């Protein structure tokens, strides 16, 4: 939507408007926000496009999408016309009778940042009111007091932001089971699929009959294996390495065989975009009959795959030949990362016959991927990534957290997938790429200033990978590598999906895309369809798939960020609920943000909780002890004061 709105300033022909944006285009013409100039429609000079921010007072501030306009435009509360924080809008300038800053009136809401509002009920002056869980502001509910008083106080309601009508009662705030419903509803995500989608998914059955697919390459004789987290149920990828011929097979679940464009499943998948993973369950992009059954590369059953056969040079490890074809595989084993790490450490006493067959190629493959990684990191950089894993009980109360770090088994699979993703990008030409721009000069300057405050001095260099490697070396000597890596990541731009290849700065690749996870990412499913149409020389289908590829890439990029936010919001809620029982208790933490409101991350037996500090005299990466002052379960915010510092 952002790119479409920006294009209106330069002018756009109706025939060039992507179909998802055509209704918006026609409405803006009717509103006279667009005017005809020759063969183009251009945004009228009295109008502007921007993104809304709304203060607690109700006054709106419109930030123009055009980079040449720096000052925000004031929009009075009465002129918002339903626009909320984060919405993309078209506004018309109006005269400011008092002089001063420019003012405007919202004439069209192009895209809602939040389709729904989540509120809980509270008694105020004898009246039941709604309290927004995002900011504790009072929300005007379109419902009678009689109906609201029939609900228990603390009822959590999902409200449509356009009609202001209650859509659903999610539960009550003091019930831990309501947290996942709040997190999903905040971003308008659905857990369950339509009856039509479920019926379509189940129609594909539970098994693959090999004789039905004579055109596919039969790889069922090869001992493929999958390597995934211990709780995984959707197996996207399987690998096999032909040691003698130095050939890697990367077999990916052939989801496009089962999900038809514009069918019931596809229509829901394109709105979900990604699977969402909670500590206790997943919210899949595809119905479980596909994601955890017929599409999943489960062991000891035949499955359809889209496979890369990559022949590598024995000396340089560079690809000599990259073949892509539809296949059938029969995975021999389903491994966890932990089990493969044991094998890589030489702990093979309990290995059975199937394990030994697989280890005969997995160990040489591990050596190969280590070489590939060393070569890759000459022009890129690696971060010590650690992810907080949360464990909850059957009532969804927080039990514990663990830190999941990258291990040799993770690296083995990652580099195999990188090879396949790069190979897919080479075959694509135009369609859907995973791109990552180099960081801006300003963001690098900010990073170096932050690092100087903690004793790491570095000079800005045109060779950013080498500069970052130098910073990481200094961080290692100070024992701050993981924390510094997070600061470096924060300074980088976000990787996104785009129809044109622009390279991937972080990985150091000239060309890159996502091919390996079509069960959980719509981007990969889209790529499979494009590659199949291109390899079949089906120009009609290719043209259809590419027709609106630019807005699709933008949509998928937005959905990716949303799915991450849902998972993070859920964890914040669990931490807040836990800390509500520990107000007054002390914990260890580390300061991770000082720019505006100081923020620390819990670094005690429990790790990862975001803590808003009520003290300003702290510095970046300072290790501190904090006392919990307040924990707001509704907003999922925890507040604390610093009791002492552990810095020497």
What would your notes on this structure say?
- With 648 residues, this protein is α+β, with helices and mostly antiparallel strands.
- 31% of the residues lie in helices and 28% in strands.
- The protein has 16 helices and 30 strands.
- The strands form 9 sheets. The protein has a 5-stranded antiparallel beta sheet, covered by helices on one side. Strands 10-9-8-11-12 form a 5-stranded antiparallel beta sheet. A 5-stranded mixed beta sheet has the order 13-20-19-16-15.
- A hairpin with a 2-residue loop joins strand 1 (34-37) and strand 2 (40-43).
- The radius of gyration is 27 Å and the shape is globular.
Q: On the 0-100 scale, what is the average pLDDT?
A: 92
Query: How is the biggest beta sheet arranged?
Result: 5 strands, antiparallel
* Subunit organisation of the chains: single chain
Percent of residues in β-strands: 25-35%
Radius of gyration: 27 Å
Summarize the structure.
The protein is built from 16 helices and 30 strands.
Descriptors for this entry?
globular, alpha+beta, 5-stranded antiparallel beta sheet, 648 residues
Layout of SSEs?
Layout: H1 2-10, H2 22-30, E1 34-37, E2 40-43, E3 47-54, E4 60-64, E5 73-75, E6 88-94, E7 103-111, E8 116-124, E9 127-132, E10 138-139, H3 145-149, E11 155-160, E12 166-172, H4 179-186, H5 195-202, E13 217-218, E14 225-228, E15 237-242, E16 247-253, H6 264-272, E17 276-277, E18 282-283, H7 288-294, E19 302-312, E20 319-330, E21 333-336, H8 337-344, H9 353-376, E22 386-392, E23 398-405, H10 408-428, E24 433-435, H11 441-453, H12 464-478, H13 481-491, E25 496-498, H14 522-535, H15 539-546, H16 549-579, E26 586-593, E27 599-603, E28 607-613, E29 623-632, E30 637-645
Parallel strand pairs: 13-20, 14-21, 28-30
Antiparallel strand pairs: 1-2, 3-4, 3-6, 4-5, 6-7, 8-9, 8-11, 9-10, 11-12, 15-16, 16-19, 17-18, 19-20, 22-23, 24-25, 26-27, 26-29, 27-28, 29-30
Helix pairs in contact: 4-16, 5-6, 9-10, 11-13, 12-13, 14-15
């Amino acid at each position: 939507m952002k790119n479409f709105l920006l294009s209106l300033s330069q002018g756009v022909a109706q025939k060039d408007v992507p179909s998802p944006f055509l209704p918006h285009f026609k409405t803006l013409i009717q509103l006279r926000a667009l005017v005809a100039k020759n063969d183009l429609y251009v945004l009228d000079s009295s109008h502007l496009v921007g993104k809304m921010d709304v203060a607690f007072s109700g006054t709106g501030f419109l930030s123009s999408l055009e980079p040449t306009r720096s000052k925000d435009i004031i929009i009075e509360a009465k002129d918002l016309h339903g626009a909320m924080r984060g919405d993309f809008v078209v506004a018309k300038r109006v005269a400011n009778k008092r002089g001063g800053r420019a003012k405007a009136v919202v004439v069209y809401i192009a895209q809602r940042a939040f389709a729904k509002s989540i509120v809980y009920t509270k008694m105020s002056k004898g009246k039941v009111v709604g309290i927004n869980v995002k900011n504790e502001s009072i929300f005007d509910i379109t419902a009678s007091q009689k109906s609201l008083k029939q609900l228990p106080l603390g009822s959590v309601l999902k409200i449509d932001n356009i009609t202001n009508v209650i859509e659903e009662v999610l539960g009550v705030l003091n019930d831990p089971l309501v947290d996942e419903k709040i997190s999903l509803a905040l971003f308008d995500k659905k857990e369950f699929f339509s009856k039509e989608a479920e019926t379509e998914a189940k129609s594909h059955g539970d098994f693959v009959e090999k004789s039905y697919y004579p055109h596919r390459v039969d790889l069922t004789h090869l001992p493929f294996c999958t390597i995934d987290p211990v709780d995984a149920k959707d197996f996207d990828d399987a690998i096999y390495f032909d040691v003698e011929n130095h050939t890697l097979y990367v077999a990916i679940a052939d989801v496009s065989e089962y999900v038809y464009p514009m069918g019931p499943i596809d229509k829901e998948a394109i709105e979900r975009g990604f699977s969402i993973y909670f500590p206790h369950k997943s919210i899949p992009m595809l119905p479980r009959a596909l994601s955890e059954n017929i599409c999943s590369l489960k062991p000891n059953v035949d499955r359809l795959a889209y496979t890369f056969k990559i022949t590598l040079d024995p000396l340089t490890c560079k690809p000599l030949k990259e073949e892509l074809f539809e296949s059938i595989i029969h995975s021999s084993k389903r491994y966890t990362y932990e089990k493969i790490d044991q094998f890589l450490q030489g702990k093979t006493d309990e290995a059975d016959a199937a394990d030994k067959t697989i280890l005969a190629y997995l160990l040489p493959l591990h050596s190969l991927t280590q070489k590939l990684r060393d070569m890759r990191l000459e022009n890129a950089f690696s971060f010590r990534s650690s992810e907080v894993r949360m464990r909850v009980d059957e009532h969804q109360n927080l039990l514990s957290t663990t830190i999941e770090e990258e291990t040799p088994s993770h690296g083995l699979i990652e580099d195999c997938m990188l090879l396949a993703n790069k190979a897919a990008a080479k075959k694509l030409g135009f369609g859907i790429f995973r791109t990552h721009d180099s960081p801006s000069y300003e963001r690098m300057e900010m990073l170096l200033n932050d690092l100087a405050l903690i004793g790491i001095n570095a000079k800005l260099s045109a060779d950013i990978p080498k500069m970052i490697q130098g910073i990481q070396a200094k961080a290692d000597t100070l024992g701050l590598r993981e924390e510094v890596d997070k600061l470096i990541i924060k300074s980088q731009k976000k990787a996104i999906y785009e129809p044109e290849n622009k390279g991937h700065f972080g990985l150091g690749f000239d060309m890159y895309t996502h091919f390996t996870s079509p069960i959980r990412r719509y981007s990969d499913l889209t790529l499979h369809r494009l590659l199949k149409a291109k390899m079949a020389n089906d120009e009609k289908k290719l043209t259809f798939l590419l027709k609106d590829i630019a807005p699709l890439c933008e949509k998928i990029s937005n959905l990716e960020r949303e799915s991450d936010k849902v998972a993070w919001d859920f964890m914040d809620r669990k931490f807040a609920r836990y800390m509500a029982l520990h107000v007054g208790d002390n914990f260890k933490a580390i300061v991770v943000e000082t720019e505006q409101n100081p923020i620390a991350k819990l670094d005690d037996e429990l790790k990862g909780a975001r803590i808003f500090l009520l003290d300003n005299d702290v510095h970046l990466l300072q290790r501190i002890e904090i006392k919990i002052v307040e924990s707001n379960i509704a907003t999922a915010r925890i507040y604390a004061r610093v009791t002492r510092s552990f810095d020497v």
